[in-house]
Amino acid sequence: MNTRFLIVFFAFVFLFVSNTLVAEKKIKERTDEKKFFVEQKGKLYITSNLGDVHISPGADNEVHIVIKIKGTEKKVDKFTTEMTQDGNTIKIKGDFDRNLLDKFKFGMFRSSSLDVQFNIIVPNQFYSNINTAGGDISVKGLKNKQEGNTSGGDVSIENCIGEMWFKTSAGSMEVRNCNGNINMMTKGGDISIYNSVGDIDLQTSGGDITLDDVNGKINGETSGGEINCRALENKGMYLKTSGGGIRIKLPIGAKGNLEASTSFGEVNCAFPFEGTSKKTKMEGKFNGGGELIKLKTSGGDIKIDTL
After folding, report:
1. The pLDDT value given to residue 170
2. Which uninterrupted H or E stretch holds 295?
């Protein structure tokens, strides 16, 4: 009796798994698309538990949304979208209805991937607020405040004017050619800022910080990486790392007060310096003094050099 039961049980499991795997192999693509007429200055809100988000500028009076979904037939059918307009505010919602297999993704029951891409064109003065639980965020060419949060992707901002506030739990962050205050935080990647004007506030728990051709007050901290900063002017700086070196480059005529210390390394300053200078610590001023530059590392050298 027990033997018969086991044979029937395993036969049932085999058929269930076989049918599941066959169903999973069927690939499907779907495109959800919509256009809204708006004024030049408006607001865009995106909320989705899956998908990459790409926003770029277009016509002055139109928001054009194209959502591409690709994956197994079952998964594509389970991803729903909603696009609505309230005056000059556009809201987009994406939702993937996960079952137990999708949530646990274990062994032969692992769900196949589902690729979702939000491609959105807005007037260049639109404000956007992006929240995705599983994808990258890319914003280009906008002239308003931009905000975003992703739990599983990279963040890329390019050619924007306005404040930028972004967070990611597991990705790298990059800003290029922007004008406006920048606030970035990641728990698992590098942060890079290139050719940007405005105050900078950065925090990463597991990566390097790279600042190149920046102009503004700088605040940056990493728990596990190097910090390299090339600033066009000293407007004040606080940089700290627990696991790497710090290197600062400033114009030869830059002025500042300096507080720099390392637990395991050396501190060197190429500018004319007045104050206390030891192997692991420097405190004083260079070129007559100015805005404070405070640098601290527990595991590397500190070097202040000229451009």
Report:
1. 85
2. strand 292-297
